[in-house]
């Protein structure tokens, strides 16, 4: 095809074997689209195309990826509202004939259907990071790190200490949108049992979202990147970087908060001594 179709928030460029979606930047464009930047969608990753009447004099052209082809949609698990669907192109109604032409052309070019056996659409690239309510999460391509916030983390997480999870030790990711009540991002171990899950605020493998923390455009690409790395077992290249030294003032503040937990009886003498030594070793 080799043509371009521009709509609200995005431009689609049609190639012989893929559709390149370039998202616009601007105050009206959803932040998730701006964070994604662009996505190349192989035709092999699609199982359908639809065209439907939209709202207020628009039409909507939509790609339907195969199940398992896109780590972003798999991580989202159906939680994205219609307005954040990255595969919808909204057009003025007067362009319906042109949109119908591209829908027919794409439909004729599709040859695959059913679940994909691997991800066919690239995940967001590492390094990625975001701030949750009870900690900061970072991902370098091979491991995930959680660093707890003294203002939000539970005593259980403080006792466990800051966490590092190698991709090789993970079996999946569970993302609950920060736009929903009690959203969180949980890392699932390889050997996840069938018992009752630990509440997110007590689980050292989970960061909890809250109002203004872990927004969709930061936490969902993060979850998708980790999920893709888990499925390919670390095929995402790590970003080499020297471990930064901690700010002494930050270490002092964390020790002060640890002392408060100790005085309140939430941390034992042994736990206090061990954690304090770990924090001092970071100076």
From TrEMBL:
Superkingdom as given in the UniProt entry: Bacteria
All residue ranges annotated as the DUF4429 domain in the record: 12-106, 137-226
One family name in Pfam for this protein: DUF4429
Cross-referenced InterPro entries: DUF4429, SHOCT
Domain called SHOCT: residue spans: 253-280
Species in which this protein is naturally found: Streptomyces seoulensis
Name this polypeptide is given: DUF4429 domain-containing protein
């Amino acid at each position: 095809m080799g043509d371009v179709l521009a709509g609200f928030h995005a431009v689609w460029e049609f190639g012989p074997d893929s559709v390149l979606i370039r998202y616009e930047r601007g105050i009206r464009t959803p932040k998730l689209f701006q964070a994604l930047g662009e996505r190349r969608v192989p035709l092999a990753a699609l199982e359908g195309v639809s065209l439907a009447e939209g709202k207020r004099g628009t039409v909507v052209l939509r790609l339907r990826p195969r199940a398992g082809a896109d780590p972003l949609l798999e991580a989202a698990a159906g939680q994205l509202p219609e307005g954040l669907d990255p595969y919808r192109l909204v057009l003025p109604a007067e362009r319906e004939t042109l949109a119908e032409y591209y829908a027919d052309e794409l439909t004729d070019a599709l040859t695959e259907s059913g679940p994909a056996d691997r991800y066919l659409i690239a995940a967001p690239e590492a390094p990625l990071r975001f701030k949750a309510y009870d900690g900061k999460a970072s991902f370098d391509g091979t491991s995930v790190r959680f660093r707890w916030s003294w203002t939000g983390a539970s005593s259980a997480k403080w006792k466990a200490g800051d966490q590092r999870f190698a991709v090789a030790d993970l079996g999946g990711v569970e993302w609950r949108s920060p736009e929903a009540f009690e959203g969180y991002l949980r890392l699932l171990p390889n050997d996840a049992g069938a018992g009752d899950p630990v509440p997110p605020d007590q689980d050292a493998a989970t960061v909890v979202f809250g109002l203004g923390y872990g927004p969709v455009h930061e936490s969902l690409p993060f979850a998708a990147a980790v999920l893709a790395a888990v499925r390919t077992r670390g095929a995402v290249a790590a970003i080499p970087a020297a471990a930064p030294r901690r700010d002494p003032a930050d270490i002092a503040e964390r020790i002060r908060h640890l002392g408060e937990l100790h005085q309140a009886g939430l941390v034992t003498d042994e736990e206090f001594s061990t954690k304090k030594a770990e924090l001092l070793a970071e100076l």
